[in-house]
Design a protein that fits this description.
This protein is of the alpha/beta class. It is built from eleven helices and 13 strands.
C-alpha cells in the first residue's frame, strides 16, 4: 500500500516555518511511499478577508506553505452557517493560485439542505469550467453534504481548529490481489481486513512517533479505496474482481457494498470517509465503462448509497445547464442526509464537448474517457424560490 496524502490541519495563525521540520520528516518517515504532503485550514470565511485582500493573502500563504514543503492546500469549506456570498470568492481563489482547493457545503450534519447554496454551487461549477479550455479547474472544487472535519482526502479537507494530521491511504492493488487469489468471498474479505489492520498498525506506529516528536497530534487514517488511472490500481477493476463482467451491470451494488463492508469491519484509528472512491477520470476501468456507455451518473450515485464517497471527477457536457447541475447536487444532498453519511460532488463540465464525445487530459492522474450523458432538463420550479433551506431528517429512526 501507498500513502496518497499526509494532511496537516492548522489554524490560520500557524507559522509555516514552525511546521517545516514535521513536513520534511513525515515525507520520509513511513516504510511505504508518501505521494503528497497536504495542508487544510479551518473554513476560509472565518479568517480570510473578503474580496481582493483575501485573494492576495491566500496567494501569500500558498507561497509560504509551499516553501515549507506542502504540495497542496485546502482552505476548507464555506459552511451553511456562513453568508452565501462567500461562495462567490471561490473562483477568484482558485484562479489566483496553483495548488489551492476549496469546497461549499450544500447540506450539513444537522440534516439541513440549502437550495440557495445548491444554485450557487452549480453556477460556480459552470464558471470554473470556463477558466481553462479543458474545464480542469473544477478538479479543485467540490460541493459537500453531511461532511465532518479533519478528512485527509481533498477537496473536502477542512480543519476543526485543532492542530493535527491524518493519513489518506491508497491500497487498491492489494485489494485486487486478495480478490483474485482468494477461493471464496469470505476468504477475500478476511484477507482485505487483515491487510488493512496490519498496514494500519505500521502506519499508526510511525504516526504516533511523529506526533510525539513534533507535538502534532495524530487524528487517524482514511482507508478509502482511492484509485489511480492504471488497471492494477483501479477500484473499478476491484469491483469486477468480485465477479462482475463490467461496472454498471446488475450486481454492481453488491460488489460496492461488499468492499465497503470489509473496510467497516477492520479495526484502526479512523478519520475521514473510509469508503470507496469511484472517481471516473482517476480510474482507468471506470473511465472505460463510461466511454462504452455502460455507466451513468445515476448508477454512481446509487452505489454511493452503500459505499460513499459520492460523485467524483465526472466529465459532463460543456453546455450542462444550471438546473441540470442543481438536480445532481440535490440528489447527492438528499442521499447524504437520508443516510446520514458524508458525500461530495466534484463535477467537471468539459467546454465545447457534448455527451458521448471523447475526453483527453494531458494529466498523469486522469484516464481518457467520454462525456457522460445527463437525462432530463434538471430541477426548476417556482416553489424553490420561496424556500431557501429545509430539513430532510425531521423524523428520528426507530
Amino acid at each position: 500500500m501507498e500513502i496518497r496524502a499526509i494532511t496537516l490541519f492548522i489554524t490560520p495563525e500557524s507559522d509555516p516555518a514552525q511546521y517545516a521540520p514535521f513536513i520534511a520528516a513525515a515525507r520520509d518517515a513511513f516504510p511505504m511511499p508518501v505521494q503528497t504532503m497536504r495542508l487544510a485550514t479551518t473554513p476560509f470565511p472565518e479568517w480570510l478577508p473578503y474580496g481582493k485582500d483575501g485573494t492576495r493573502e491566500l496567494v501569500r500563504l500558498e507561497q509560504a506553505w509551499k516553501a515549507a514543503g506542502i504540495d497542496f492546500m485546502s482552505v476548507g469549506t464555506a459552511l451553511i452557517a456562513h453568508d452565501v456570498e462567500w461562495l462567490s470568492e471561490i473562483p477568484f481563489y482558485l484562479g489566483a493560485t496553483e495548488s489551492v482547493f476549496a469546497s461549499a457545503e450544500i447540506a450539513d450534519v444537522h440534516g439541513y439542505i440549502d437550495f440557495d447554496r445548491i444554485s450557487f454551487a452549480a453556477r460556480i461549477i459552470q464558471q470554473l469550467s470556463l477558466s481553462q479550455a479543458n474545464g480542469f479547474d473544477n478538479l479543485f472544487f467540490a460541493a459537500t453534504a453531511h461532511c465532518g472535519r479533519d478528512y485527509p482526502f481533498f477537496p473536502v479537507a477542512c480543519g476543526s481548529g485543532e492542530i493535527g494530521f491524518a493519513i489518506a491511504m491508497e491500497g487498491v492493488t492489494e485489494v485486487r490481489q486478495a480478490l483474485q487469489t482468494a477461493v471464496t468471498l469470505n476468504d477475500a474479505r478476511s484477507i482485505i481486513i487483515n491487510q488493512i489492520e496490519t498496514t494500519a498498525k505500521t502506519v499508526s506506529a510511525t504516526a504516533d512517533y511523529l506526533a510525539t516528536q513534533f507535538d502534532v497530534p495524530f487524528r487517524g487514517i482514511d482507508f478509502s479505496m482511492a484509485p489511480f488511472p492504471v488497471d492494477e490500481k483501479s477500484l473499478g477493476g476491484a469491483l469486477q474482481d468480485v465477479g462482475l463482467p463490467f461496472i454498471g451491470t446488475e450486481g454492481s451494488l453488491f460488489a460496492a457494498a461488499f468492499l465497503t463492508d470489509a473496510l467497516q469491519r477492520a479495526q484502526f484509528p479512523r478519520a475521514g470517509y473510509n469508503g470507496l472512491m469511484m472517481s471516473v477520470l482517476e480510474d482507468s476501468v471506470l473511465a472505460k465503462h463510461v466511454e462504452e456507455n455502460r455507466l451513468s451518473v445515476n448508477d454512481l450515485l446509487m452505489y454511493s448509497a452503500v459505499c460513499g464517497v459520492g460523485l467524483d471527477t465526472l466529465p459532463l457536457p460543456g453546455n450542462v445547464t444550471t438546473d441540470q447541475l442543481k438536480a445532481i447536487l440535490m440528489d447527492t444532498a438528499a442521499l447524504a442526509l437520508r443516510l446520514r453519511k458524508p458525500l461530495t460532488a466534484r463535477l467537471m463540465p468539459i467546454p465545447g464537448k457534448m455527451a458521448g464525445e471523447p475526453v483527453v487530459f494531458d494529466f498523469p492522474y486522469f484516464a481518457n474517457s467520454r462525456v457522460m450523458r445527463i437525462r432530463g432538463s434538471g430541477m426548476s420550479h417556482p416553489r424553490f424560490k420561496y424556500m431557501s433551506m429545509m430539513t430532510l431528517n425531521e423524523i428520528e429512526r426507530p
